[in-house]
Amino acid sequence: MNRAIGAKFLISAVARVLDPGCQVDTMPVLEGPQGLLKSTALRTLFSTPWFTDHIPDLHNKDALLQLQGKWCVEHAEMATLNRTDASRVKEFISRRVDRFRAPFGKLTQDFPRQCVFAATVNPNGTGYLKDETGARRFWPVKCGAHWSGDKRADIALIAETRDQLWAEAVARYRAGESWWLDSAALEDAQAEAADARYDADPWTDAVREFIAGKPFVRLGDVFEVVRIPLPERSRTQQMRLAGVLRALDWHVKQQRIEGVNTRIYVPSAAAARLQPPQHDAPSRELAAIRGDLAALAR
Description:
This protein is α/β, with parallel strands linked by helices. The protein has helices at about 1-20, 40-45, 60-65, 85-95, 155-175, 185-195, 205-210, 220-225, 235-245, 270-275, 280-295; strands at about 25-30, 50, 70-75, 95-100, 110, 115-120, 140, 250-255, 260-265.
């Protein structure tokens, strides 16, 4: 898997130079203890003038300016991101074109991207992937897993073979090789690796237990499980709870119940197959909805 990711990453970097703005919405994440020289290896591979490990606030135009003239941008804060920041990173790395007015410029312009992104983390036993919908964009790469305690990345060897590596990447790009995971085996391996690094929400276990065997649930019912009273329910908490349900492979739909359009969550086909049987669940759920509708009608 690491070999495949390494090749795809280099080909994607070539693609971004020869075809600026092409779709590259993935990012390898180099995992390993501090001191393995992960960042130095990236800097050496891409050369210092075309590498940066400094990205300002992603909401700021300075972040877009920082990309200009760079070939590889390292994100060194993956392990410290909260869920909101993780969603922002996912959106940021997925863009193909940046639009802004350059300093002293008179007009807003489009700047097709010519850079790729990589991340480095020092795993501490906890998951660093926070976004349940964007895991496919992050490609975990374990570094030095079988190395002796004092072994580090061979920076001299990277510098010596760099031109050959890039020549091979250019040849493979021109031969039409893809820079995304293009086989079921690679996709499954990446998904499994990402799942193992997903930092599940603390509400997940309680919600999983509550929805087991149910054909559908309403968000209000699930709020009761996490013990958030109605006056304290915010839009942020709604989005968080909806994210937990999505992570458990449930999706939202509109269902007409008792003549009223009701927003409910139902399991996907795959999730439904894992559901334990609970034959009286529909009647209990419908009874609860009828009770709420009756209360609203009073």
